Amino acid sequence: MISPSRMTRFAFASVLVLAAVPQVVAQTAPAQPALRAANTPVDPQSAIASREAWLYKGSDITPDPAWHFGTLKNGLRYAVRKNGVPPGQISMRVRIDAGSLYETDPERGFAHLIEHLSFRGSQYVPDGEAKRIWQRMGTTFGSDTNAQTTPTQTVYKLDLPSATEAGIDESLKILSGMVSNPNITATALGAERPAVLAEQREQPGPQVRVINALNETFFAGQPLADRSPIGHVKELEAATAETVRAFHDRWYRPERTLVVIAGDFDPAKLETMVAKNFGGWKGIGPNPADPDFGKPDPKQTTTKAVVEPGIPTRIEMAIVRPWRYNDDTIVFNQKRLADFIALAVINRRLETRARSGGSYIAAAVRLDDPSRSANGTFVTILPVGSAWDPALKDVRAVIADAQASPPTKAEIERELAEQRVSFKTQVDTYRAEAGSKEADDMVQALDIRETTTSPAVIQGVFEDAVKKGFFAPDKILAATKRLFQGTATRALISTPTAEPGLETTLANALKVDVKGLAGKRTRQGNVTFASLPKLGAPATIVSNTPIKEFEMQEYNLSNGVRVLVYPTTSEDSRVYVRVRFGGGYNALPSNKETPAWAADLALTAGGIGKLNQGDLDALTSGRRIGLDFGIDEDAFLYNALTSPADLDDQLKLIAAAMSAPAWDPAPVLRARAVAVSSYAGANASPTGVLSRDLDRLLRDGDPRWGTPSLAAINATTPAAFRALWEPLLKTGPVEVMVFGDIKADVAIAAVQKTLGALPPRTAATEQTPPPHFPAHNTTPVTRTHDGPANQAAAVIAWPTGGGVAGLSEARRLEVLAAIFSDRLFDRLRSQAGASYSPNVSSDWPTGFATGGKMAAIGQVAPENIPLFFKLSREIAAELVSTPIDADELKRTIGPMQQSIQRQSTGNQFWMNQLDGATYDPTRINALMHLYSDISNITAAQLQETAAKYLRPDRDWTLQVVPAGEGKK
């Protein structure tokens, strides 16, 4: 019921994430159905065997009454509920209780392969038509229609916007045919196999190899050691229609299927349609027993070392124990909560040491049950540079200290406060929780063999645990000791260069006695918001203008700050805050590299006034207050999601951050260490090279974009960082946006005494030139990578435009890009099998008058780079020469219309659309025409737009090839 994913995480923890078992997300297009026994609709009432809440068997957790459960006579289970977020949408999930762990050795990759084949064609859908059918219903392929294969399950997903009863019924009929009777024939397999192999080829090599080595080490002697969902090339190439069909018939059966629906529709009717469309399905042969996932074997090798030049030195440790099924009871969850609090205390101590400039950049501990194969406590360490031994020793010392004596009540209370605000937030915002999330939560609950329920019940379980003393210091100490005991301790180290005898050295390092080496525990002092630097006198309101079209209020304050307030209850208890100031990229030098790149990691972490980052964490503990910094085209940004009760202090914190940064040097040095350690990894794959270089290349080398050079990273000192950012933080103009569950008069009063209390600001007098597109080339720019020789990437791009005045044209380009992308996908992937996920996108900057582009990107084998450019240019020429037919236009515009309607039910949509509107009212007018601009686009307009921009004499190309290829 209570997942570790809900626990607090630290900002730098993101650099540590390397999932033990990767999930494979397929975006496969639907082949003529094989001649099999049909799954025909049946009388729904006669198909239902029970309406018992099967999820809660053996549990004393109070069920969420919104869910309606049932079991059909063929054994299929379902769960349906009403949810109106967003209005009109229906989220369907069909879960098969079989993933890669259900494969035999010769079948490795079959579970994922069947997922592809099911989308390609099935009983009710001919080859390639499922995508088009759902597009006509308004879905976007990839985001609304998708599937996922993991070691333990295969899940088919559909989010159907503006769903009608006929559309829901037809979709369930299609889904039933996909899982019961997919087209598994020699022809279909031969057509889809190249796409699956392309997906495997396009995975980033170093990361995949490290993940595979982790699984081989942590789960040695168990099937999970070698059951990546993507499979092996050997078995995939050897697969026949007969062997793949045998896997399907063994595991795809109603007794192993769950249908989940959450959406804006009557649950009783949803139940009826599930029974009607799935009730006639009968499994082939007997239902087999679940395979044995095994248990951790203490006799297996303890340590492993791998050499990956593209990945910085890192250590992964695991204390593994057998996974055992537990009834999901209240007491079970309360004990697990105590485990999470114990680990949260350790994580905070680890983070405190990392912030002070210790031997590691970041470290974290976590509890997990990977693929029901083990219960484990996992430790991740990212050392500074290659000095892994002191980092390992320091982290082990912190963990040993946590096992030696209990944490203080203050430490526990701090973590409880974080957890309490998390649970309260879930309760307060439950009405705004999307149906897609609720459907996913139900699928996840069954997969991990637990329950899901309402946030209020979860909150009650937590508060009951507090009252019963589950979090007393002695209980947390006992949990800590238990968490670091197990069947076996295993560790993997990855280094950029080989070190002789490293596995033995690592094994010996794990035996070193570290008791007493952690030093004195750091105690956090008491801080309040009164500890922040003082602000000036509140501003007065100079003008107040209603924006009647959107029920918003615009205010001008006496210190020059402009404010846009949108009071709305569409998202209960959520208030979005955005403060825009200065010139953004327009204010950064365009002729040299700067330390601007480090702002995200170092600016807010540098502290405020006399408060350091630890003080700020304590200040906001138990509060819904954030402080995220970013750079936009024409402004610098502070973003936060807060609550009505926390709005005053949220704005006070942002005002203090803008007026009195502390410039602690430690976060700058830490950001530099992170960037240096990860820099070499960019060259390990084509996608890494694109991530590093493409943004800058598409702006003709402008140093404001893209990853900085290693020389620029090394030149980023605390002094240089401050010299750049100190004057920029003082610039104007300032725009404050407050959107959400707050009254306008309350919001503006809070702004007046915070951002309104800042001294007046002026805009920067010097503006740097806007970015410009590179010149046309006849030979692609070439970059090389150090990854596998069968990986490459290609890019072709055309310049477009920019600015708010041209947004109508920008929207035509978005439609054109979607059509281009769909055609490229069909030809390069579905037909040629040369690329797994080619895509085309249009970028039209509103903060610049120029700099826009349309770009097509594809990961391909090196020998298919010419094919990518050929197909891309052919499609571009077709869009210029031939009008788009009515069906293709409808299938493109429909999903875009639905996307606008769904997104517009949330506050972030409006905030993103109206950035800068208080200084540029044309943005308001542009938003008013957004839907009509998309809806009224004609084939003739698109042809005209294509002729204007997709010119062969202006395109620019890039290829990323293996290092050896680049020298030819």
Structural class by sheet pairing and helices: alpha+beta
Outline the low-pLDDT stretches: 3-35
**Alpha plus pi helix count:** 32
Overall average residue pLDDT? 93
Assembly level? single chain
The strand order across the widest sheet is 1-6-7-5-8-4-3-2
* Helicity, as a percent range: 25-40%
Shape: globular
Entry summary:
This protein has 32 helices and 25 strands. The chain is α+β, with helices and mostly antiparallel strands.
Report on the structure:
The structure is a single chain. The protein has 968 residues and is an alpha+beta fold. Helix content is 39%, strand content 16%. The protein contains 32 helices and 25 strands. The strands form 4 sheets. It has an 8-stranded mixed sheet with strand order 1-6-7-5-8-4-3-2, sandwiched between helices. A 7-stranded mixed sheet has the order 14-15-16-20-17-19-18, with helices on both faces. Strands 9-13-10-12-11 form a 5-stranded mixed sheet, with helices on both faces. Strand 18 (628-631) and strand 19 (636-642) form a beta hairpin. It is globular. The model is unreliable at 3-35 (pLDDT under 50).
